Predict the structure.
Amino acid sequence: MWESDPFRLRDPARAEKLSRALAQLAPKRPVKIVHVCGTHEAAIAESGLRALLPKRVEIYEGPGCPVCVTSTADINLAVKLALEVGVILCTFGDMLRVPGTELTLEEAKAEGADVRVVLSAADAVRTARENPHREVVFFAVGFETTAPGTAAVLLDRPPDNFSVLCSHKLIPPALEALLRENTEVDGFLAPGHVSTVIGADAYQELADKFHVPVVVGGFEPLDILYAIALVLKQLREGRAEVENAYPRAVRPGGNARAKELMDEAFQVMDASWRGIGTIPASGLGIRAELSRFDARKRFAIQAAPGEEEPPGCLCPDVIMAKAVPTDCPLFGTACTPLSPVGPCMVGTEGACSIWYRYGERPRL
Amino acid sequence: MRKPLSEERITGLHGAGGEFMQRLISEVIVPLFALKSAGPLGLEALDDGAVLSPHRGHLVVTTDSHVVKPLEFPGGDIGRLAACGTVNDLAVMGARPVAVTLGLVVEEGFPIRDLERFLTSFASVLSELGVAVVAGDTKVMGKGELDGLILATTGIGVAEEFVPDSGLEPKDVIIVTGTVGDHGMAILAAREGLPVEGEIHSDVAPVWPLVERALSIGGVKAMKDPTRGGLAAALNEMARKSGVGITVREEDIPVRPEVRGLAELLGISPLNLACEGRAVIGVSPDKAEAVLAALREHPSGREARIIGEAIPEHRGKVVLETGVGGRRYLEMPLGDPVPRIC
Amino acid sequence: MEGNEATVDLGGVRSRARLDLLEEEVKPGDYVLVHTGFAIRRLDPRDAQETLKLFDELFSYSEDVGE
């Protein structure tokens, strides 16, 4: 049953043909392609795809790990809610070990805070219903693939003891911020599942404004090689368009229903991205009509502002696609998944964590 | 009339050295073992120690403790695991298993019937191989002080030429004797109660019959059993200790489809999951095909495959050629993804 | 399927997913893309075939222009 899954695009013969196509399409100059999705990076690393790329073509993970770019301030707020206010803090498992200014959520839990891992916003609501006499806060982290789920539960009459600490972020503004700081990016591989929600059209403005090709790619190894090939093809032809290489899951307009729900529940705000700083109109906040479910309003506490990463930590450069994990002096020595220094080594979608676990290198 | 001991539960008295313990040992435990000596004095004497005859060749010794949870799982139980774990450690040193000792630590209240069942599994592996149980010890800990049962063993074997895990040289061929990740996945599925269609069975089995065949062909330079940390850990250790690199091809590594599917779903790699019935064998290139053929003659070696070779580059590392033709390092796993796996 | 939830089979293991975000009807036997407990799209196996056709187009193109 599993082996006959029609969506597994992994056959080695086609991979070889794609690799040859890439070599034929690659320009003579170096090409830097950026993607912004932990799942893409994991797929690239797991299949060792960088070894199949032509020498001049490099692919970097940008801010594609929502856990890695959650601001230290928000983590501190979550820790405070759990430890001082005593709520049941529901969070995705990945967030547990991300360093805050003082404590991680896992450390807070060891000190007696009620921190619980959930797999979805719906689980958090269930926790609230099962614990009617406790305050339950869902730490909502993630991009546009995850935000609609949070919106859906907010709009579905959640119980009074439920609230959301909303830390959702948006991808297109991050791509723009990246392009402003990073002048040598030649093209983007846009994230598959975020694009299922927001639609391929969401990148049109970026392509037009900055004259860069944007190709929406799927997650099978062949999908990724194909998407990269399309970027190279556009560069060769001097085009800068949005192309959808994942039509089986992505439409031009995306998922209208999901977008509607997000619009009803959230408003766009400026947001602080760890390692980057404030990016205008890049985050989601809960609308006034639903403010009674907004943990930031319900609980009158302030969060300590974020701090710089420890000396030597290259996470800001890795997040901005200026460096790869092996460029960092701490990678694999002082910084490992068991003793992480920066956020990129903690989240399963962080570049450093992925490179460490999969033994990924720039070119093997 | 005395109730048969099998219907009772372990109490503190069973570990106290007196009458109760003697009954447990002589009525329940000792009768289970077919072979009880490997020299002038064996288990029946219940003396303070056993005496072994001298053998030609090197004496190889290993020790193991087994704390697997759950105690029973599809494909085996703690008894079978303890027996195989011990004799397999000897086998991958190139040693024919000759004798084992068994230390039991049991929790008060443990049903003696269950103990009997697990020790029967233990005994059956050993009698199949002609290995004697020559000495033992029994201790009881209070209820709640121990999680059920611990089996601690020492294995003794004999090797004319022993085989270290550090003997690889460039060009040596790497063979794995069967599918990988089965035991780890079986334990995980059983422990988490994963709603899987069909069961995933542990591969727990003795590997001496396979190793014996390989040794008879010759050319065996290094061996390891891929237990905790799976194939990835075993290959990395062999590479590091031998001072060579190893390259392996993902599509040649045998993995059962159901293990692959469940592992992918859970976000773990079958290459990091423990095996308890497999050996990784490094063979000189001129003997590789013959060794492979010999392994495949045995029912438990039908899926043996050549998966890669040792190389002079990337010393101490393992390079994985992925299913689509890409390349990355196969890293030493951070830890076994499944605690209390064996 | 019950209300806005469904049981999904993920390669042999069963799990639950919410259907609130889907724009189209799904029926038992359909493939869906699931993220954090929510199904976000129905997938058609025929589209996988379409994708392979796209690859083939690319191969011919690159053979023509390649060095």
In short: The CA atoms of residues 90 and 123 of chain A lie 9 Å apart.
